[in-house]
Structures are given as C-alpha cells and as structure tokens.
TrEMBL record:
Keywords: Chromosome partition, DNA-binding. This is Chromosome partitioning protein, ParB family. One of its GO terms (biological process) is positive regulation of sporulation resulting in formation of a cellular spore. One of its GO terms (cellular component) is chromosome. Pfam families: HTH_ParB, ParB_C, ParB_N. GO terms for molecular function: DNA binding. Residues 47-137 form the ParB-like N-terminal domain. The keyword DNA-binding applies. The lineage of its organism: Bacteria, Pseudomonadati, Bacteroidota, Sphingobacteriia, Sphingobacteriales. Belongs to the ParB family.
C-alpha cells in the first residue's frame, strides 16, 4: 500500500474524522439522492440511511459482541431511539460501508429499525482501519489479543513504526510493545487471553519466559490453581532462575568435558537428529547417555536407529 499522508490521532477519533460543530448540527432535513431512499446525501452530513444499504467494516478489529448486551441496547433503542449516529463512508451508488458503530448497527437491526442516523465521511482504507481500531480502544471494547492484532495490522498495512503507531493511538511505545509481544505467546495462551481467562498482567508475566514448554506449564498452573498475577510473577522468577542455573551447569560441564567425549556427544546428536547429553564421571569412567524424545513417533524413530 502506498504511504498515505499521516494524520495525527493523539486527540482521538474526532481528530481523524475532522468533525466540526457545524457538521454535527446538520439535521436530517439535508437528506437527498443516494441514501437508499432516493435522496442525495452529501459527504460530511448527518442523515438517515437504510440499514440494508450499509456493509460492515472489513477492517473491524473487534470480533466478539456480547449477545445479552446487544439485546439490552436494542431494547433501549426501541424506547428512546439511537442517540449517537454511526459513521459510514460512501462506496458507490446508494451503498455505504460502516466506519464505526457496528455494535449500534447490530442493535438497530435487532430492534427492527429500517433506517439509522449516520455521519457520511470520506475515508481511504488506511483511515478505515485506524478509525475502527481507535474507536474501539477508546471505548475499551477490544480484548488484548484483538488490540495486539490490530496494532500489528496498522504496522503492516499502514507502514507505521511502533513510535508512529503509539502517537496514532495515544499510547506510549512500551505499551504498544507489550501488546505486540502477546502475539509471540502460544495459541492456547492467546485464546485464553482473548476469552478473558487470563488478564493482561498474567500475560505480561508469561512473556518473560522464553521457553514455550515452561510458558504452557505456568499457564496450566494459573488455570488449575487460579494464581494471582503476583503469584505468577514469583513463579516466573523461580522458573527463570532455575533455567539460568541449569544453563550455567551445562556450560560448565561442556567446558570440563574432554575433547574426545565432546566429539562423541556431538556425533551421537548428529546420528539421532536430537540433542544428546553425555554424562561422564571423571573419577571412574562411568556415565550415562541421555537421548530425549518429543513423541511416541519420535521414540520409534530413535529405537529403529538403535535396531531395537
């Protein structure tokens, strides 16, 4: 995508939409030919548009909508109408595409409305993505994984650096980085964050564990024992300290191992296509050979190499 002119979003969605008080006060009387009712609607105005003429926002970062909350909003709309208009862009003819307000649009459909008040805006794809993301973040409707995925999309599709992204969404760089780091976690942990089983605090602690198996172990401990964020942070420190000590011991052992034994260990690792550990007792020449396997199939492969 070609680099678009950057629009500062530090002041939020209204800065990007460039709303003015004059635009906000435009009445429904301005409705004319292409609002789905045979009337023209000039860009920048507020009018009533047929719901069936509105497509959803393909850049919408939010994927989960609470059914109970939608029904409650629909009942409120039936009684009092929709107070805050949605925002759309015209995509040709009498068709429109939603920029922001999908929850309101869904609730209006449930309420049985055929028309909905809307701001008509001009926006390119980059602005569509930014508007949808920013509106939801400001309303705190996105879960942490949805925010992280949306940040990554803005970086990839809008050619933004992390510092620029932080300016756009009014977040400092460390906050943006912490969200993006969530995408390095295993899928099972990401799904748990998305579903609300793990908090952002739990996730930030897990990010500090580099070994995936250990991450999953701690994750299971959180789920099974309902560990608090502080308890998880303590567990992470213990796991990392133990890993550091084991690494130090392994390095010491490798340094103290003779060249001959080191070569034997390397040759065995090459033969079995997996890490092999040679433990040698320097005093009496005794020792052990450890060959780990990752699954039953992997064990069968190793046994075949041993002619078992």
């Amino acid at each position: 995508m070609a680099q678009q002119r950057k629009i500062g979003l530090g002041k939020g969605l209204s800065a990007l939409l460039n709303d003015t008080e004059e635009v906000r006060q435009v009445s429904a009387a301005q409705k004319s030919a292409n609002d789905g009712l045979g009337r023209e609607v000039p860009p920048g105005s507020v009018s009533h548009i047929k719901i069936e003429a509105i497509e959803v926002n393909p850049f919408q970062p939010r994927t989960d909508f609470d059914v109970t909350a939608l029904n409650e909003l629909a009942e409120s709309i039936k009684l009092q109408g929709l107070i805050q208009p949605i925002t759309v862009r015209k995509i040709g003819g009498d068709q429109y595409q939603l920029i922001s307000g999908e929850r309101r649009l869904r609730a209006c459909r449930i309420a049985g409305l055929t028309e909905i008040p809307a701001y008509i805006r001009t926006a390119n794809d980059q602005q569509m993505l930014e508007m949808a993301l920013i509106e939801n973040i400001q309303r705190e409707n996105l879960n942490a994984i949805e925010v992280a995925l949306s940040f990554q999309r803005m970086i990839d599709e809008c050619n933004l650096k992390q510092e620029e992204l932080g300016d756009r969404v009014s977040k400092n760089r460390s906050t943006v980085t912490n969200y993006l780091r969530l995408l390095r976690l295993p899928p099972a942990i990401q799904a748990s964050i998305r579903d609300g089983q793990l908090s952002m605090g739990h996730a930030r602690a897990l990010i500090n564990v580099t070994d995936v198996d250990k991450q999953l172990y701690i994750f299971q401990e959180i789920i099974n024992k309902g560990l608090s964020v502080r308890k998880v942070e303590e567990l992470v420190r213990l796991v990392n300290d133990a890993a550091g000590k084991n690494k130090s011991k392994a390095n010491t052992k490798e340094k103290s191992m003779s060249f001959e034994f080191q070569k034997i260990q390397d040759d065995l690792a090459s033969k079995f296509a997996t890490k092999v550990t040679l433990n040698v007792n320097g005093k009496n020449g005794k020792g052990t050979i450890e060959i780990p396997f990752m699954s039953e199939d992997d064990l069968s492969r190793i046994l075949e190499l041993l002619d078992w």
